[in-house]
Amino acid sequence: MDCACAREKLGWYVDGELPAGEVYALQEHLRDCRECTAELHRLEALVRRLEMAAGPSGVQAPPNLWAGIEARLRPPAAQTAHRPHPSRRRGWPARFWRRPIAAAASLGLLIGGGVTVAFLAHESAQKAQAAGIDYSVLLDGVAQDADAAVDRFLRHYSAERITPEAASAAAPGLSFRLPQELPGGYQREAVYRVQFGTADGVVARYRRANEPLVVFFHPPIGQTRLGIHRESECHVAGREGQRVEVGPWQLVHFTDPSTCHCLLSKISDEAGQSAILAAIAPEFRTP
Question: Least packed by Cβ within 10 Å: which of 23, 220, 262, 284?
Fold first, then answer.
């Protein structure tokens, strides 16, 4: 797959509407192409900003709303040309066009003035940073070099190494434990305070022989960005969670009312993952 073909499919991929037979080919291209991966991230950021701007709404837009807006935006010579329905246009997520109120508001801002657009885009970016965590920074390279991927994630979120005793004070709203040793013989190696937008978080590295294991703690969030990776539901000790698999590595999330506990490891069996989560999450209970 070349770049031109990949970029035509990005919108459908972001919207989860790309046929299954084409997903793998696109993901393979994205793994080797920084330019298309960057385009994917830009498109995902645009969708997040529009969704935040739109918010929940029970308002039903008139069916001819988009046609009226489009007619006013097109040059006069082009107004009689046939245009496909917006939801069929390649490269744009269908969920955007299914929200004509958000589309109209966004177009109105674009027409209204560049200063307003720039200000709102800056505000949206700030909110997205505070409300979401970009795990693609970690996952993109974890299969090749897990330690380097973790280092990159820590730098991205302004990590500051702290003592284990200072961890609770570094993120007082979170509920977690950091024992010296985890089930399976993993020894605590380092603890960090990280900054997820305006929210404080904690990351701890463990190691068994030369195999790292990393735990992440942060407040429950509305957006988890995974880039080309895909999340699936899982059950750990009968509790619902989420899992992302990248090669031999798994990132498993367990969330209680105050804290998301995330485990990056090569542990693939439910019993092993449950034992780790029970050790680090006070509210996690095995059956």
Answer: 220
CA distance 43 to 192: 31
Neighbours of 6 (CB within 10 A): 23
- CB-based contacts of 94: which residues, under 8 Å, 6+ apart? 11, 12, 15, 17, 87
User: How far lies 156's CA from each of 66, 247, 258, in Å?
Assistant: 40, 23, 23
User: Going by DSSP bridges, is the β-strand pair 160-162/181-182 parallel, antiparallel, or unpaired?
Assistant: unpaired
Cα–Cα distance measured from residue 58 to residue 37, given in angstroms and rounded to the nearest whole number: 34
In this structure, are residues 284 and 237 in contact, taking their beta carbons and an 8 Å threshold?
yes
Q: Is 85 helix (H, G, I), strand (E, B) or coil?
A: coil
* pLDDT one-digit tens code per residue, 174-230: 999 999 999 999 999 999 999 988 889 999 999 999 999 999 999 987 667 878 888
Task: Measure the CA–CA gap between 281 and 287, rounded to whole angstroms.
Answer: 15
Q: What is the model's pTM?
A: 0.56
> In this structure, how many other beta carbons lie within 10 angstroms of the beta carbon of residue 80?
7
Neighbours of 287 (CB within 10 A): 6
CA distance 157 to 239: 29
Q: For residue 180, with 0-12 CB atoms within 10 Å meaning exposed, 13-18 middle and 19 or more buried, which class applies?
A: exposed
